[in-house]
Design a protein that fits this description.
heterodimer; A: 217 residues; mainly alpha; globular; B: 70 residues; 5 helices
Chain lengths: 217, 70
């Protein structure tokens, strides 16, 4: 029988918070380091700072999607490092998560393609094709995930999107305002996209935590 | 919103998963409602009340009182 969600206690906190945090930290740092190194190799051609940050941001999207997909397809292992109560929850959410992972991976790949172009090793038309394909394909998978969600997940998605818009006004709008007045350098075009990706991820974490879905036990 | 969902569920001896299955929602939804992190939609609140054979106000507690104009 499936168990109830419980409050955090001793080992449960370690297992459900510290282990996934360490896991995410190690893999996140490793991925960022690898992508940063990749951006410096000669054939990539020395990317701008904006492009490097976009490459790392897109790569993290792909990494999170792949790790979540692996955990979803192998619930026993996934329950150890994903934010779920047990493997049964992963089995229940499988269809939603697989579609979400596909969307996230495609969106990440789209940002990576843009980061590697203009200037970069990818020709602008090819990068545009990959980015448009990734964004539209990702939107299709996101729509399927949303349709498969129950009302809490649908509410979380709507709330996260709303928070993303507010954060975008505050952060990107604030950046534009200060840059317009000459106080700070203005954002590069790619910075705006990377900012939206980062703020969307942040808004999702905040919303999930507010709804009590950060399982601690 | 304050509610008695957990008491009714436990009185039936159901886990959150069992209740979620009967209502056609996720366990996360049941947990979020029980811990007052999420107010369910009206259709779901009605289904919950029907399942436990109680009225919605018996399940969800609202302390609001109408202002007496007279």
């Amino acid at each position: 029988m499936m168990s109830d969600a419980k409050q955090p206690e001793g080992k449960a906190i370690w297992r459900k918070v510290a282990v996934p945090a360490m896991f995410g930290g190690v893999f996140g740092f490793g991925a960022a380091f690898a992508l940063g190194s990749f951006a410096d190799v000669s054939w990539v051609g020395g990317l701008s700072t904006s492009a490097e940050i976009a490459l790392i941001g897109g790569g993290l999207y792909v990494l999170i999607a792949l790790m979540t997909l692996l955990g979803t397809l192998n619930p026993k292992a996934g329950a150890r490092y994903l934010n779920v109560e047990d493997e049964g929850e992963l089995a229940e959410m499988r269809a939603v998560l697989v579609n979400s992972c596909a969307a996230m991976a495609l969106w990440g790949a789209a940002l990576m393609a843009l980061a590697l172009a203009a200037p970069g090793p990818l020709a602008a038309p090819l990068a545009l094709a990959i980015a448009l394909g990734g964004l539209l394909g990702g939107a299709m998978f996101a729509w399927r995930s949303w349709k498969l969600s129950d009302e809490l997940m649908a509410a979380v998605t709507t709330e996260a999107n709303s928070l993303t818009a507010l954060l975008a006004f505050a952060v990107l709008g604030g950046w534009g305002m200060l840059a317009h007045l000459g106080y700070i350098p203005g954002p590069q075009p790619l910075d705006l996209l990377t900012g939206l990706y980062a703020l969307s991820l942040l808004a999702t974490f905040v919303t999930v935590a507010r709804r009590g879905m950060m399982r601690l036990g | 919103m304050e509610n008695r969902l957990k008491q009714h569920r436990e009185a039936r001896g159901w886990s959150q998963g069992e209740l979620a299955r009967r209502l056609g929602v996720s366990r996360q939804t049941i947990n979020a409602v029980e811990t007052d992190k999420y107010d369910p939609s009206l259709p779901l609140a009605l289904r919950m009340a029907k399942l436990f054979a109680v009225s919605v106000p018996d399940l969800f507690i609202d302390h609001w009182e109408p202002i007496d104009d007279e």
